[in-house]
Amino acid sequence: MSGGPCFDKDWNVVGVNSKGWDGLDLAHVALLWPAMKTPIDLFKSGEFPAIDLFKEGPAQAVGYRRLYATSKGESRLAKIDPASLVPLRFYGRDEDLPIALNFAASNAQDALAEVHATVAKAVSGMEPLDTNTVVRQARHLFWELETALRLALFLAARQAGLGIEYPPTWEDQVLAWRKQTADPEILDALATLEFSWNGIDLFELRTYAELSRSGVIATSATTSVSSDQVFAVSLEPVARRGGLQIFLPDGLDKFLESSRRFVQDLLRLSLIPKRQPETASSEQKDSPSGSVGSEE
Amino acid sequence: MEFEFRQVDGSFPGMQFAMQLISEVGGVARCIGSAFSVAPGLALTAAHVVDDYLGKGDDSRKAGGPPLIALQLFEGKMLQWVVDAIYGSVAFDVAFLRFLRPNWWGTEPGQLNPRCARLNFNPPSLGDELRMFGFPLSHVNESVLYSSPSVAFAKFRAST
Predict the structure, then answer these.
(1) Tens of pLDDT along A176-189?
(2) Do A8 and B128 touch (CB under 8 A)?
(3) CA distance A74 to chain B (A)
(4) What is the pLDDT of residue A288?
(5) Residue A288 counted as domain residue
(6) Which fold has domain B4-101+119-155?
(7) Would the CB atoms of A32 and B120 count as touching at under 8 Å?
(8) Which one of B35, B96, B132 has the shortest CB-CB distance to A6?
(9) In B, which residues are within 8 Å of A11 by CB distance?
(10) CB-hemisphere CA count at 13 Å for A212?
(11) ipTM
């Protein structure tokens, strides 16, 4: 048996039959991964670690991503194969999505309220400006609003029966919607929503949410030289080219308002009953402009 | 060297890429162990099977030496591979065998492209069932290779 393959249940080779098999009770199998550091010259063009042969193509090995041959000729094996880490993608039941959405919106409101209170105390001279609280709550505000928007996209997709089983991007959703319907009322509303999605407020919201994850946001305060009285607080940096400073706390209100409007309009649209093709068709024929019946 | 396979059941999955290693010393051929194809022109075996061909040291190899061939049964034909280099990892009892490119190998009409094993680098878990394949009782007698493929089932107990 020595030198022969040792298979797993799927007929993949996990080792080489090694010394010590007594034919009855005990066998030794040499596992493959420690030997994959071995330099080989398969193509007579120079040596390379054997593992390089099994990373891609028809010889790609199961679990190859776990293995690394170091520059010093050692083999290292990760504790787990990243390919085995598969998310379950259970995004919640239909009836739970509105609850999650409301929860995110409520959290956003709380965060905004705390920014208002903190800045108000500083401006009134009651307390020094607590910049940590302001930045923390601003981050929470952006993240919760971004979450609410994503949940709304998902909920709308399910309510409209768009057949999307994962949280969609806005672009996914528009595409699916346009494939599903030629109803002019829905398409008009969708176009209006697209203006909002790609408008300044929601663009800046997404930018600040991303910046809060991957960059630095801070506050800048204008104070009295003589008394350290805070006159104005702004959020730094500016979110976009040509954008304006966001003065706190009122400057944040627009993000909550724009998000709320977008979510409400989107969910309302997703609940419009689908018209029967015949009905839609006859209405199009009756249209005085005659320009919306082009699909016929 | 020319051989004739006897007593071989080609239906076992392992037979598609398993090989028998035949060494010829002084005109006498003998089975020294098993190997299996892992890529075109490359096979794996246990380092101790080919220790006569290896020098001292973990990654040593030796060109020349007595002829070493690997026999592979594929689509009812017995294919001969000639080993021209060995890359051993003695500490882990694994060795790579590089073969000369035979004229029958390829994808052109009339050529053959035998299968290779798929490797799994994930170590088995305790209790996993493993199947060990080889040719434990094979022997050569007057240019006839009496091959006895064998499979043993085992449960993985521990790493040492």
Answers:
(1) 999 999 999 999 99
(2) yes
(3) 12
(4) 38
(5) no
(6) Thrombin, subunit H (2.40.10)
(7) yes
(8) B132
(9) 13-14, 118
(10) 21
(11) 0.90
Stretches where chain A sits below pLDDT 70 are: 20-25, 274-296
The domain ranges of chain B are: 4-101+119-155
| Predicted pLDDT of residue A285 | 43
Nearest-Å Rg of the Cα atoms of chain A is 30
Q: What is the pTM of this model?
A: 0.72
Whether A160 and A125 map to the same domain: the answer is: yes
Paired tokens of B82:
């000639």
Q: Looking at residue B28, what is its pLDDT?
A: 86
- pLDDT reported for residue A107: 98
**Quick one: A98 and A116 in the same domain?**
yes
In a domain, A282, yes or no: no
Q: Please judge whether B89 and A13 are an interchain contact, meaning their C-beta atoms are less than 8 angstroms apart.
A: no
Smallest Cα distance from B109 to chain A, Å: 21
The total number of structural domains in chain A stands at 2
Q: What is the pLDDT of residue B97?
A: 95
Nearest residue to A263 via CA among A93, A96, A136, A100: A100
Contact A159, A270 (CB under 8 A): yes
Question: Which are the contacts of A134, defined by CB distance < 8 A and separation ≥ 6?
Answer: A115, A118, A119, A219, A233, A248
The vertex-A190 CA angle with A187 and A193, nearest 5°, equals 155
* pLDDT score for B90: 87
Chain B residues within 8 A of A28 when measuring between CB atoms: 160
- A131 touches A119 (CB < 8 A): no
Across all residues in chain A, what is the average pLDDT?
A: 89
